[in-house]
């Protein structure tokens, strides 16, 4: 027989299920009303009741905001401070007074790790792999649910890795290269499926080592490789056919800096001589310069993310420059945009930036 405490909890749960989300309104209309609340206030809504908290984490709520074109994209930055401590920051790009906010403390196991990868799928952030001077490469994965604002352990990678490359495409994360406990790290793909929360691993004889960069473009995973004579070349992996092909040689020039895709167009921040924004022209198969950016504001090395038509250039100490590619103006060859220089106590190096829309 159930204990009195279990009976009480079951009764309260059943009673709660029959309580409307908002008194006087059917639930479908209440969900429509709650979906219009800006994302910055969702943490307040979760405190109202268990039903509201569960609703805000549901696919039903996310779909409702998507149908009404209300999804808001926030930027997440994985950083390391001068004490070699890892931390995450978040930026809401919508309010007029933008500022970076320290995210909830990352799992203690990841605080001192190096060589981790940082990815985003659905409404979750992922910290993958890594190592330290006291720890061999690991296959551990941690995820942060941006709806519940909680970290938890996720399914482990098939292969322990550190200093490896990853890319998120569709509902999958593709992982390859790096250092591991065996040669499997350099000649295999580990692929994570978000919906099933499972990993699969594939040995790939077409996989060429010495990958220095990976990114997503036109539904393919592009990799940039560095040869023994210090020259780069590019390859492309098609997940639908699981086949590799050589990419245009000029594509490999994106090893000069971070890349981002805005409205199906690939951009690169060339950091070799100052900071200069470049655009990939598909027809001509070449990089075209768009304009220079003030290096005092960009503070390279930088990371790039896109929100709508805007490119966010996030540099050291989380200094941020925003360039709207639909409205970008030039003054004597210099691109004009807005900037944000946070006042932070610690020197921060930005390892990676990702976006999540809710």
From TrEMBL:
F-box domain: residues covered: 24-61
All copies of domain FKB95-like N-terminal Kelch, residue ranges: 97-301
InterPro entries cross-referenced by the UniProt entry: F-box-like_dom_sf, F-box_dom, Kelch-typ_b-propeller, Kelch_1, Kelch_FKB95
Record Gene3D superfamilies: Kelch-type beta propeller (2.120.10.80)
One protein family per Pfam: F-box
Keyword field: Kelch repeat, Repeat
Domain of life: Eukaryota
Protein name: F-box domain-containing protein
Organism name: Dendrobium nobile
